[in-house]
UniProtKB/TrEMBL annotation, chain A:
Listed name of the protein: Uncharacterized protein
Lineage top rank: taxon: Bacteria
Organism name: Candidatus Comchoanobacter bicostacola
TrEMBL record, chain B:
Domain of life: Bacteria
ATP-grasp fold RimK-type domain ranges (all copies): 175-260
InterPro entries for this protein: ATP-grasp_RimK-type (IPR013651)
Name of the featured protein: ATP-grasp fold RimK-type domain-containing protein
Amino acid sequence: MINGIILHRDTLFSRILQVHHPKKIVAISVTDLINEVKIRYCLHTGHLWAYRGKEFNISDMFLYQEVFFSLGIGLAHYAIADQDYVECAWQSYLLSVQASCQTINPITPAQMSVSTYQTPNLLMLAKKAGLQVPRYSLFEQPNYLAQGYNKLWFQPHTRWGKVLYLEQMNGVWYYVPFSYHPDYGLRLTMELPDKLVRQLTSLVLSLSVYFGEFYFKYNSGLYTFYGLSPVLSESKYRYHELNHFAKTIMEDVV
Amino acid sequence: MYTLVIGNQSDVVIRHFFSCIDAKKHRSVVFIDVNEIGVSIQIKQNGWVFLSGGEIPHNQVKSVYNRLLDAPSEGVNHHQYYFLSWLLDSFYPNVINRPRDTLCNFSKTWQLMVAKKIGFTIPDSYVLANEQYYVPTLHKEIYKSISSHRSIVDHTDRNYRKQVHEPVLFQKDCGRFNVRVHVVGQQIFATQLNSKSVDYRYDQATQFQSIWLPKWVSDQCIMLNSAFNLYFSGIDFIVSGQDYFFLEINPSPGYAYFESGMNDNGITIALFDLLGIND
């Protein structure tokens, strides 16, 4: 019996997710979603979908989606002038889908704000959660040792520039995938100190972001939090790490 | 301490807002033209810098009327504009309304879900995508955009294709008696709109009339405003008999249209109070 949906853009992680419990999952690409899936949604009866001869009500199923900000991939059949309207229509609909399903990585209207994942926002909330964070400066080189980046959204591999300056700390970069489930707490791919896990849990709850990866600078037992992203940087992980992470998530929800 | 009004110079709401202000008395109310950000107005980490002279530290801003409606134009410094979004979302006090909260406007189905939970009466509504639809014979139906993209609302029987591809919202037509409710803090301003058109916004003969709402409707409107963390909103109803059918909530209402139609500045004055302009 089907109890989960994966809306994907053919990433490695989505392919790995599909390997686990394949009979319980329907995987739909972004192109098929936009062009093939027949949808009837009513507030009272839920989301009825028809896809390749199968009909199912996806309300209350678990959902993993990575298409919300990539819908443009499936819009090739639409006139360019219509694409923005059509994309917004799908995003608008997918917001209510995510609210009706047990979504692993839900997006709410408020989270669509451009400020959500900005460094000033993440570092402010991280500091409130008790995490060690670097100093930062915007648009101007500060008088402490700092690296400049070309946008307000930080990942360790962000291109250098003159928009965001982050204090440089000694140490090595850690990318740590995470997933939060209300029954099982924070799932991480590496063991971190209990206090740090509690602080990170507090951070993801305050952001309402339940899936993604953290960025730390690690040096002599000290973890400095630099940011997070809701999307995995797949090239930074080994296959078995992603596979183990996917298996853990699927065991939580299937 | 300053009150910032941030938006586009051509916005009729901003023009209406400032037409009610005594410029000499209210020098601490500053208009920020969003298209000048990065041009004649710089946003620094600690404050605003104006090319014409003067600075406003961010911690000297006591309130903001946010009228950022569209994406910034090409000349605008996008990095500064994005930083402004964070200032409005998380730094400044008393922002009407915070950008992240105005995004409730992005999805009408999201709004309907929340309104239903609060107890509003919702018209029979459904969404179709990649489907054919059938025009009901027992009653009329209207169809409209599901997102914040503005569309002209019309009856389904006027659409000859009877097929949709992108998600479209269909609702039972509950009558032609529209009511717009503006909620400003805890204050309610209700206007009845009489029009023969399906979409009164496109009817130049629309007539406006101030009305009193039943208390339970007023209470629900204030609850909905709070549910979306809004200070100011415009809520649309279709009224049939005693039933108020919730249609949608607009977190950036173009209220000047209603005040002009009514020859009344009550909403603007309530906004002044909320922004602390008369303090």
